Amino acid sequence: MGTSIPVVKAILQANEAVASENRAAFDRVGLLAVNLMSAPGAGKTSLILAALAHLPPTLRVGVIEGDIASTLDAERIAAHGIPVVQINTGGVCHLDAPMIRSALSHLPLEDLDLLFIENVGNLICPAEFDLGAHLNIVIASVPEGHDKPYKYPGTFQKADGVVLNKADLLEFLDFDLEAFRHGLRILRPDVPLFIVSCRTGQGMEAWAEWLLEHYRRRRERHGP
Ligand code: MG
């Protein structure tokens, strides 16, 4: 029984080491890396595309797309002329740091300011694996219900920012915003919450501005 624990630890430790290398590679070029985690269908790809419309056109954005299979999301991103690499995990339910490291050789890192990493749609496993990103973002959406912070505390605990998407549906669904907020505050009293709709653009300005502020701070500290 006791033998499985050291194995899991070793995997996570090896992951940590590569995550630190990834972070160092990002810092060398003054790039901000943002890991997006959510259940399937919460709007990770849509959030990337909606943010692009509100970020300055001079900000150079790249994307790593994580999916179990297919290149559908990467194609949506590439259609906007954005450098994108698809990672197909072949059934694995999360990205890990070595997968990111191998994707990085396919991206023009020196020519990027902001790298979005879209994790595999899953609210449990991705939070266990540090990718080397500077910001871990958890996206929930109104149709999923307000109980997500209560049911997946481990993932929300890792969040540097939380986005509640599909806010345009609040008036049609029995989503208790105060219960959601309360569940989040119990875990993370100070984590910023962005209430947005990728469909209508609601809240997108504040979200883009927050990302930009983090980018500027990172650039001051690590910029070339
Ligand atoms: Mg997607």
UniProtKB/TrEMBL annotation:
Positions of the CobW/HypB/UreG nucleotide-binding domain: 34-190
Cross-referenced InterPro entries: CobW/HypB/UreG_nucleotide-bd, Hyd_mat_HypB, P-loop_NTPase
GO biological process, any: protein maturation
Keyword list, A-Z: GTP-binding, Hydrolase, Metal-binding, Nickel, Nucleotide-binding, Zinc
GO MF, any single term: nickel cation binding
NCBIfam families: hypB
Family the entry assigns: Belongs to the SIMIBI class G3E GTPase family. HypB/HupM subfamily.
Record-given protein name: Hydrogenase isoenzymes nickel incorporation protein HypB
Gene assigned in the entry: hypB
